[in-house]
Amino acid sequence: MDEQSNNSGKVVIIILIIVFVLVALVGSWYWFMHIPEQEAQEKARLEQIAREKAEQERLAMEEAQNKLRYDELIIAADSAFNMELWENARSLYVDALALYPNEAYPRDQIDFINAKLERTAGMIETVSTRTGRFYVIISSSLDDDLAMDFANKLSEAGNSVKIVEHIMDKHTYFGVSLGDYASWDQAVSATMEFNSYGEGVWVLKW
Question: Please, which of 60, 107, 109, 128 could form a disulfide with 165 given CB 3.0 to 4.6 Å?
Fold first, then answer.
């Protein structure tokens, strides 16, 4: 009887030891593996959220900067367009279109300018009477043949050229012009476009 009781006691002790070991193992796994893993996953999730938020803020700031730059380019391009500075206007519209390729307005303006330049490129026109317009003169000569030779070279390069026959100091001059405008301010602003022809570029009202 005592032996049976001892055996039963041993069994209980063994079971308790096994239970204790299992509890210890589960506890160790829970505290030393599961909890750290959960904390690491939560940390990674919060870091991902932070990265996504930072990226969204960066994209929003970039979009705001692009929109501001686009508006500035369109304003400058429209101003050049109204002043008939076609090459300058086209360049600005192209820059604006690069920011927003799906925008129809700058593309339409570029198409209009291209068509206009294609129609006028290579033409030489002689202006012999007063028109009231303001001409940007890049060269002026007393010799009409010399002026025409220069105009032909410019025309061959694809420029639209006007030879303006005008009188100064009782002498007849032949001015070679690459642009004429409705106002003095427009013509003066346009002279910047022709700096490559030297410092002798000036504006003539005729």
Answer: 128
